[in-house]
Structure formats: structure tokens, C-alpha cells
Design a protein that fits this description.
Chain B: It is found in: Cell membrane; Membrane. The complex is a heterodimer of chains A (about 250) and B (about 300). With about 250 residues, chain A is an alpha+beta fold. Chain A has six helices and twelve strands. The longest helix of chain A is centred in the last third of the chain and has 25 residues. Chain B has one domain. The model of chain B has no long low-confidence stretch (mean pLDDT about 80). Chain B contains eleven helices and five strands. Classes of the chains: A alpha+beta (about 250), B mainly alpha (about 300).
Amino acid sequence: MRRLFALLCLIMLGAARDPILVPEISQHEVEVRQGFTGTELLLFGAILDPAGTRAGRDYDIVVVLKGPTRSITVREKQKHLGIWVNAESAEFRSAPTFYAVASSRPIDRIVDTRTAAIYELGLPFLQLSPIGTIDPGIQARFSAGLVALMAGDTLYQQNADAVQVKEQVLYQARIKLPSNVQTGTYTAETFAIARGRVVASAISRVEVSKQGFEKGIADFARNDGLVYGLLVVAISVGMGWLAGRLFALR
Amino acid sequence: MDVYLPIANLAVNGLVIIALGGLTGLLSGMFGVGGGFLTTPLLIFYGIPPTVAAASAASQVTGASVSGVFAHSRRGGVDYQMGGMLVLGGIIGTGFGALLFRLLTALGQIDTVINVLYVLLLGGIGSFMARDSVREIRAQRTGIPLPARKRRHHPLVANLPWRWRFYRSGLYISPLAPLLLGMATGILTMLMGIGGGFMLVPAMLYILGMSASVVVGTSLFQIMFVTMATTMTHALTTRAVDLVLAVLLLLGSVTGAQVGANVALQVRPERLRLVLAAIVLIVAFRMALGLTYRPDAIYTVSPL
């Protein structure tokens, strides 16, 4: 009984000593407008004791920035009759359109694979929720294919030295958003990890949206296809005609 | 000069796109083809999503063909009756093409079909044109004229029911022939984002047997209307027409088309055709390599 009580005290004490994370992002709204070539987000914050003082321990920080998810089909090309054609495919219900993980050290040195899988830390541990029953081996092959493809477009990133922790209190991470990001709500989840255990986490949000002319065009094309199409046709005829006239004058 | 494309969802170098439009415009002015067969693959190569590339390249071809049609109609080089039948067939074909596009996209085979079509059509027509122009050039060198072609049009065309007189083309054939030809190009336009001029011109010459003076003008007339229909169909179904991309391409191509038309006046037509044949064959060869070599991206992603 006494031993159990002591254990309980230890757990509560441990819980009470868990630090709190105060995260912040350099911009909560990313505006995609003319001339947008991507942007760099600065994710920073502090790790504090519940008492508000500095935690006084070494922490590892992992920041995960995740874009809106979508359902996708991943297709695999195989060689048939001498040409490469799409053969097998797999469907995933929740593939993020953007996923970047920044950490202060390589993730496999911060946590074990089980913890990494639970918190989705790192590209190999992305949870894509495959649709239908699918052989784990095949699923792993398609997931790896998807990750490699998205990483090639810098839409999936994993950077093991993108987080700096200063004086056991302040941390900052930099994540680049390329120009081909999807619009929507992005979540930035920050994890403070000590001795292989996630001791604190916090979420903040970034809204990526088209603005101004770009928003106008995208909405126009989506909501009023007929008028939009007529406008494009009119512009192409007009420009062709104008060029003909201008050159004929010379 | 970075320009963000609102439908394609990415930033591109505007000058590169204008130059690309200029290059294809040059070809269209010189050879009377739309140049779409070059634009679409190059845009995809540049990283534009294939659907957006095909949808937006169509409007560029419209622009390039408009000025050509005006120039040709001034000197009576357009057979409106024949053109009308081709356009009618083309618009029906665009509808079929849209259905086919949707079906193939659902099956995941659209890329393969597009690539195979490119290789077969460009390869076939390219070698045909090359053989023809080499023969003609050789005939001029040696001074031995080529034997006159005996048959005006293909026997299949002669077998079609009811006949009309097409005065400007100098033909007495069934209107079904241009209608079917128009349909075929309409389907290709929708699938490949091309005007189909490179296919239409030889078909008009060798299958229909139209008189050469109206071939280029009439083909441009058909291309102009069919690409308009394609743009509309894409705007209503795939919603993948990118206005900004189209304007950039147009800027280059309408200028290039005018320059090309001037160049065309100074070069002998059979030489011109040999150059076009070479370009067409190179594109076909590159596409064939892409099909048989292990591709860089084994995996592709499409939204469900």
C-alpha cells in the first residue's frame, strides 16, 4: 500500500513537473497572390516550468507542419509489352497535401519508433489511412512511393537540424512553404521531448489562402465556368486578331 | 519574372512561358499548324499539371490560328463550306473526347493513352511528311518531275453516300468525309490539347484530296473553332483552364505566329515541310523514349 502511494506520488510529481510550451508562428495567414513564390515560416516559442521559470533541462523539439488532407489514388507504373503503364494502385483517405517535420536532432535519436509512430513524427510514420483491405507490404511500398514523389516537389520535408534550442528555454524552427502549396488550414504541432518521452505539446494554426486577383480567378473558374470559358476564348481571339492587325500595319 | 498561376497553383517564370508560346507561334505561322503538339508536352515537362497544360494550350492555339485565318481569308484561301463540316464534326468530337477523357482519367490510363497517341500519330505523320518532302526535293535537284498523282481522294471517301460540291476545294464528295475527319481531330484536341493541324493538313491533302491553295486556311479555320469548343468544354468540365497561363502563352504565340508567317514566305515550301517533319519526329522519338525507359516517377498521385 505504502509502495503504491509512493508510486502515485511519483507519477503526480512527474506530471506536475512537465513543462508547458508556448508556441508562436511568424505569420498566421499566408496570402497567395501575384508574385507568390513560396514563403518561409518561422515557428518559435518557449519551454517553461509550470511555475513560469525556465525549465532547466535539455529538451528536444520537434515541429510538424501539416497541410489539409485529401483522398488520393496512388498509381504505380509497370512495364507491360515494352512500355511503362499504370498498373497497380492504392487509395488513401487522408494524405496530407503538405507535411514538414523539423527537429533539433535526427528523430531516430530523439524517440523510439513506437513513439514516433504514435505522434506521426517523421515521413516514415505518416498515417495515410488506406481504403479497403490492403497487404501491409504493398501499402508500405505505395506509401514510400508517395512520400518520395511529394518530397521531390518539396511538399514533404524532413529536416533534422532545422530547430535551434537556446538556453533550454527558447526554440525556433524554419519551414519553407513552396509556391505549389494547396490552400487551406495548416496545423503546426510542436512537441517537447525529454528522454524519449513527449512531455509537452501544443498546436497552432496557419491559414493559407488565395487573395485578390488570384482568388478572383480561382473562384470565377470554379463558380461560373461558362462565362469564364467565354472570356478566355474572347481574349485569345482578341489577342490573335490584334497581333494580326499590328503586324499588317508595319 | 515570377508569375503565380491561380489554377495550376504554382509559380512559374513568366518569360519562359512567353518564350515557349513564341516558339510554338513561330511554328504555327511557318507551317500552318497550331503548335499545340509542342506546347502541351513542354508545359508538362516544366511542371504544370497535365490537365491544366492541355486545357490552357488549347486557347493558345485559338489565338495563333485567328490571325492566320484572317490572312488566308483575305486571299480566298478558306473553303467555308468544307470548314463548316469540319467544325461541326470537330465539335461533336470534342464532346466524345470529353467523355473519353473522363473515362480514361478514372481508369488511370490517360497519360499512357496520350503518350501512345503522340508517338503513333507524330511518328506516322512525321515519317510520311519527311518521305514526301525528300522525294520532292530530290525531284527538283535531278530535274525529273514526280509522276502526277492519279487518284484525287482515297477510295474510302468515294464510297460514302450523298455527295456535295465543294467549289473552292474543287471536290465532289460526301460531306460525311470531312465530318468524320473533323470528329477525329476534335477527339484528339480534347485528349491531347492540340489543334490537330499537323494531322488535318496531310489528311485534307491525301485523304480528301483538297486543292492545296485552301488546305492551310481551311485547316486553321477548323482549328480555331475546335480549340474554342475545347476551351469551353474544359472550362465547364475539368475547370482546368488557367487564364494567366493562357495569356502568357498567347503573348508569345501571336507574336511568333506573325514572325513565322513572314519567314514562311521566304523559304521554299518543301524545305519547310522537311523541317516540320524533323521537329515532329524528334518530339515523337522523345515521347517513345519516355514510354520505354524507366520513368523518373514510377508513382503518380491523383485526387480521388
